[in-house]
Amino acid sequence: MGLSTHVLDTMHGTPAAGMTVELYVTHGARGEEATLVKRFALNADGRNPDGPLYDNTSLKVGTYRLVFDVAAYFKARGVALPEPNFLNRVSLDFGVAHVNEHYHVPLLVSPWSYSTYRGS
By the 8 A CB rule, do 7 and 42 touch? Predict the structure, then answer.
């Protein structure tokens, strides 16, 4: 249970080790207000080194945002990106309706595309 994320670099076929991620709690009808909860760099497996972002007792019903610093990650990997970059920071807004369920938010990303889904 709780909330977790995982990022895979589809350009290199590896976990996105070192990518910076920010987790926010959002407020307002459209999530226009956001409070930073934590900022972290992904470990060698492309996951938060401290484990789940929220455990099952800390996760609350509400809206959240994960922001992935895609351009900085690919630049650090030596990928030549145009200026301005096609993708800079990928922001995913999502809702948690059932705190007794696990919310896993994976990101598959390249410098030119990304996809996500609710994982298990």
Answer: yes
User: Is the distance from CB of 79 to CB of 110 less than 8 angstroms?
Assistant: no
The enclosing domain of 65 has a CATH number of: 2.60.40.180
52-55 — which CB contacts under 8 Å span 24+ positions? 52/2, 52/3, 52/4, 53/2, 53/3, 53/4, 53/5, 53/23, 54/2, 54/3, 55/1, 55/2
Residue 76's domain comprises 2-116
**pLDDT tens track for 19-56:** 999 999 999 877 789 999 999 999 999 999 999 999 98
The whole-model pTM stands at 0.95
Domain tally for the chain?
Answer: 1
- pLDDT tens, 78-111? 999 999 999 999 999 999 999 999 999 999 999 9
Return the closest-CA partner of residue 15 out of 49, 60, 59, 63: 49
